[in-house]
Amino acid sequence: MSLTIRVRRTAASLAAMIAALVLLATGLTVATAGRAAALDPFTGYLMAHFTGEHATGEQIYLAHSTDGLNWTDLSDGAPVLVSNLGTKGVRDPAIVRSPAGDRYWIIATDLRIANGTSWSDAANNGSRSLVVWESTDLVNWSEPRLVDVASGISGAGNAWAPEAIYNPATGDYVVYWATNATVDGVKKHRVYYSRTSDFRTFTSPQLYINRGSGTQGIIDTQIVEVPNGTGGYRYYRASADGQITIEGSNSILGGWTRIGDLSHMGITNGTGGGNVVEGPMWMPFNNGSSWGLWLDQYATGRGYMPLRSSNLGSTQNFQTVSGYALGGTKKRHGSILQLTAAESGRVLAKWPSRAVQRIQSYNFQDRYVRHSNFEARIDANVSPVQDSQWRVVPGLAGSGTVSFMSVNYPGYYLRHWDYDVDLERYDGSATFRADASFTPVAGLASSSWTSYRSFNYPDRYLRHYGYLLRVDPVSTATERADATFRAVG
């Protein structure tokens, strides 16, 4: 969401301006404003998602695609953004672009099940805040911030699965999410909304979607805008409410008409069985004439599957799609943003695929740096070999440094603690970034090899001692040899 520029005009000229903007919008992104005419054509896609309830799974991951069906994990499958606020975990990210294409936001649920939180506690006594990141280029992101959106709801137990869409009728963003609260004596998840122009200040929450007086709740809802009202409506929303229900409207905050559900395809959200899915995720194809709807097959653990439609006005138009690949990580509830060529170029330059390498010891050349029970050491004949495979990535602390990310534990890095070196999960802190960053220099024992100077203790180097890795001062010939390595394929 970019800052709204308020320009005073007559009512007639304002109406004309809005009409012109509507006509100029030719392609729309999930959970964003209509594409501004100044944007270049869309040529790629960016998916923001989380990967599951494991140590690093509830953070922000990104994947890129050129065709919308075959995906490549960015950052070599490691988290791109990490929240160290609130519950210290995030789920259900939505990625949002401003109408002018000059600002982006990621908003996400503040929730971490992997730390032992029960679903009941999370739903009834969980965080009522969202986690927000902000960027002007999709690659350099602000520190995360917590925004309380649900405390104004009486008895609110949580704030889950946030989404946002620009509303040209009001010139700001509608942010909507699910909260578990009691209304008319019934406690269940309903969708609430608030308005914001800067993702910092929000209006008081209002009830948005309530599935009647019964106990059926609704959690996952996502809206897509389509050009020219294809199928009879300007906006369509898909919701997980026992079924995967599709509705249409010509106004985001107006009345919605139920179009149908996907039960005829054997797909439900639990009511009636079949293939039980959640997390509906829209994706306009860049051809401008068809729309994808990705569904998370969480009940069977098979991950996302795509459907495709050229007319969202009837659920009978949806068809299953084959020939897709989701990359190396499991994709859980997220959102997809269409990208221009310039945007794709930036994200691919920021997170290029890094080669898998082994780090060979100079004075014990049959031994390689490996992790064993999360302790870093050098060993020969490592099994499994993945324990000794690394991606040497740009240093978490920057400034010309490198960091060593585990291949079989993406998101885990070598870092020193009291000068001992271990494999640990990146927690997003500045201390971790400094501890896990090293400056490559000419090898202390041989200039054709490499030594790695500690970023935050520049008088110390990565070295082995008794085959265990440490960061130590180096002065003797033996120490120089212990601190000399070579990255090999």
Automatic annotation (TrEMBL):
InterPro entries: AbfB_ABD, AbfB_ABD_sf, GH43_arabinanases, Glyco_hydro_beta-prop_sf. It holds the Pfam family AbfB. Residues 358-486 form the Alpha-L-arabinofuranosidase B arabinose-binding domain. It comes from the Bacteria. This is Alpha-L-arabinofuranosidase B arabinose-binding domain-containing protein. It comes from Myceligenerans crystallogenes. The lineage of its organism: Bacteria, Bacillati, Actinomycetota, Actinomycetes, Micrococcales.
